[in-house]
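Practice problem. Given the sequence and the SMILES for Phenylacetyl coenzyme A, write out the predicted structure.
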Amino acid sequence: MRTAHRTTPPTVTGTGAAGTPHGHGTAPDEAGLRAHFEKVIADDRKIEPRDWMPDAYRRTLVRQIAQHAHSEIVGMQPEANWLTRAPSLARKTILLAKVQDEAGHGLYLYAAAETLGVHRADLLDALHEGRQRYLSFINYPTLTWADTGALAWLTDGAAIVNQVPLCRSSYGPYARAMVRVCKEESFHHRQGFDSLWALTHGTPAQRQMAQEAVDRWWYPALAMFGPPHHASVHSEQSMAWRIKRFTNDELRQRFVDICVPQAELLGLTPPDADLRWNDDRGHYDFTPPDFDELTRVIKGDGPCNRQRLAHRRRAHDEGAWVREAAAAHAAKHRTPHHGPHPAATTAPATADEATADEAAA
Ligand SMILES: CC(C)(COP(=O)(O)OP(=O)(O)OC[C@H]1O[C@@H](n2cnc3c(N)ncnc32)[C@H](O)[C@@H]1OP(=O)(O)O)[C@@H](O)C(=O)NCCC(=O)NCCSC(=O)Cc1ccccc1
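Answer key:
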């Protein structure tokens, strides 16, 4: 695997570290570095790219951040499907902005992953070869215009519930990327609610279309939070490292508690006969998603897995000439005395994502 250019080896002198643990000028041994890492985590400070970190912490972050980035990039597809069929210019403009935001989120996140010493070209290869994944809900189809509203209201709503705690994640670049991403996700969520509001205040046929879309998207949104806690392979360690702050089940419950009153406002009913407020628990009781279905979709057997991945590979292949042109342009501007032109480190990836954006549209 290629590794991103690193100017200095990892040390403990990043902003997450309040000074080195071993005084001046001496190279701390691994036990000391580990103790310092544990202290930064325990003090709820940030680990920064040049700080020492255990290999498993680095691997976990690469896995999660890459999956997150891939979800943003492949996640452009279900809604891009409706860009040319939006019911008004205003709705088209809003949807276009949302899809472009997702491309931007993918870029932040690939950049955050690169601070861990990997190259985004390798992450994209891993996605295209099925070695890394994106979130399950993206493998469901958007059958009507109302699906774009339900998708945004429910899955962006779920993404916000999941990602707000990630703003306090222990890894600095990931946490900081999440702050802006969450602000933009709030707009996505709000516009989904607004789109459904228009439909539920329209004709009976429009109301029915909105209800059917919510029927389709409720469980894919609940499944976004992952397997139940007892079956979650990574949660315990990720929570100990403060990458994750809550279990998958805690976040799923929080999402349901937030969502049900919003559904009531919209006049829409989640497709769960057992959904009701439980006074004793102070939460809604609800039927969990079908976790066997989640496993099947994660393994590649959802309704649109093949279509989504084939489209992503095609967008990547068709963008090859843009990446080559951008690299050639950057090389032309490289000067012998001043190192690489700034564009040299970012242009190929930017070109790739710009192409993906266009192709998804
Ligand atoms: C919560 C979890 C997804 C999983 O917790 P962990 O502790 O990491 O794992 P855990 O042990 O619980 O699971 C075991 C295995 O199962 C995998 N898996 C689990 N669930 C899923 C799933 N649902 N889908 C697929 N795979 C899933 C998991 O990776 C692991 O597999 P591995 O060992 O890697 O092979 C976490 O990684 C996370 O927060 N990620 C960042 C959130 C993120 O990506 N947000 C982007 C939202 S998109 C957006 O906003 C843009 C948009 C919006 C609207 C429209 C269009 C676009």
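Check your answer against the key. Confidence is low (pLDDT under 50) at residues 3-25, 341-361.
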